[in-house]
């Protein structure tokens, strides 16, 4: 439960986590309506709050988008890295590709808003790509618990995550192969790469 700091106007305490979730819900609705150009004021209006209530939780638009990226990255990762899939890279890749396709197809404006580059003042340094890559890196290190993996995991995780996102972006605009074919190509291409990671780590040690 959050309370107001010394020197601020008095007011009822509020649940910061609940307010953050309410604002993230409002941000999603605003982006679906107006695209990624929405402002903090737009989000506050959509949520029915004063701008100051929004700034108290998310001081900048970048902070808001970063939290929104975390929300959606967590959803994709939770579905892709289920306990029953550990040690089964093809199942993990298939789930990841399908979840990303579902999300981009259902939420194109939201995906663009979370993937785009912001101004230098509000650079989104932990957007959806960065968060997905970081979690993929963590799982690679867990799969191959070797000091040599520390060198290759950051590189391969970003190659894999970026590659999957770029291929899905391309497919979304062309649709010149079926979804099943697309997912199959992704799974086989990157599963082969995952199998080679230990060898790459050894070669670069």
Number of strands: 0
Oligomer: single chain
Percent helix among the residues?
over 70%
CATH class of the largest domain: Mainly Alpha
Average of per-residue pLDDT values: 78
Q: Please give the domain count.
A: 2
- Form type: globular
Poorly predicted parts: 1-10, 117-121
- From the N-terminal CA to the C-terminal CA, the straight-line distance is 49 Å
CATH 2nd-level architecture of the largest domain: Orthogonal Bundle
Q: Structural class, please?
A: mainly alpha
- H-E string: HHHHHHHHH
Largest sheet entry? none
- Tell me the fraction of residues in β-strands, as a range: under 5%
- Helical segment count: 9
Report the C-alpha radius of gyration, rounded: 20 Å
CATH topology grouping of the largest domain: Tetracycline Repressor, domain 2
Essential attributes:
205 residues, 2 domains, disordered N terminus, Arc Repressor Mutant, subunit A, globular, 9 helices, 72% helix, mainly alpha, Tetracycline Repressor, domain 2
Task: Walk me through the structure.
The protein folds into two domains: 11-59, Arc Repressor Mutant, subunit A; 60-203, Tetracycline Repressor, domain 2. It has nine helices and no strands. It has helices spanning 16-34, 40-47, 51-57, 61-80, 89-106, 108-115, 128-143, 149-174, 179-203. Helix 4 runs parallel beside helix 7, helix 5 packs across helix 8 (149-174) and helix 5 (89-106) crosses helix 9. The longest helix has 26 residues, at 149-174. The chain is globular. The model is unreliable at 1-10 and 117-121 (pLDDT under 50).
């Amino acid at each position: 439960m959050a309370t107001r700091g010394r020197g601020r106007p008095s007011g009822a305490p509020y649940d910061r986590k609940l307010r953050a979730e309410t604002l993230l819900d409002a941000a999603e609705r605003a982006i679906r309506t107006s695209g990624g150009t929405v402002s903090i004021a737009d989000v506050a209006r959509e949520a029915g709050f004063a701008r100051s209530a929004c700034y108290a939780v998310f001081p900048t638009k970048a902070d808001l988008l970063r939290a929104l990226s975390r929300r959606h990255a967590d959803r994709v990762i939770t579905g892709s890295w289920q306990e029953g899939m550990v040690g089964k890279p093809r199942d993990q890749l298939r789930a990841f590709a399908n979840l990303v396709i579902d999300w981009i197809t259902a939420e194109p404006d939201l995906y663009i808003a979370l993937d785009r580059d912001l101004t230098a003042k509000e650079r989104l340094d932990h957007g959806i790509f960065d968060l997905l890559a970081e979690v993929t890196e963590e799982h690679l290190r867990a799969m191959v618990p070797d000091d040599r993996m520390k060198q290759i995991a950051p590189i391969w995780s970003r190659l894999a995550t970026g590659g999957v996102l770029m291929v899905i972006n391309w497919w979304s605009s062309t649709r010149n192969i079926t979804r099943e074919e697309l997912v199959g190509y992704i799974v086989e291409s990157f599963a082969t790469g995952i199998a080679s990671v230990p060898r790459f780590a050894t070669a670069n040690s």
